[in-house]
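Quarterly update from the structural biology core.
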Amino acid sequence: GLTARPGDRVVVRVPADWLILRWEGSDHPLAGDAANVWPAVAVSDPGRQIDVPVPARAGTSIATYTLWVRTVDGRVVGSLSVLVRIRVAG
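Predicted structure, tokenized:
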């Protein structure tokens, strides 16, 4: 897991021979109800990383990022999901 402060950002990066075409994400507290959802975002200029804020609430959350990717040469397309446990010191 990661430890962060309010206002910090999370960077999710793919290897140099891959590009991110679209992504979506969410986070929810480890205990309790509530969630933040980022709807799918088509990347206008495909790149190797996304940069998103850490959860706005203090405490521990699980953040999920789903990326739709392709190789630079366009031969392979796929998706991957990344789950990160983030503790935001309040």
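The CA atoms of residues 29 and 61 lie 4 Å apart.
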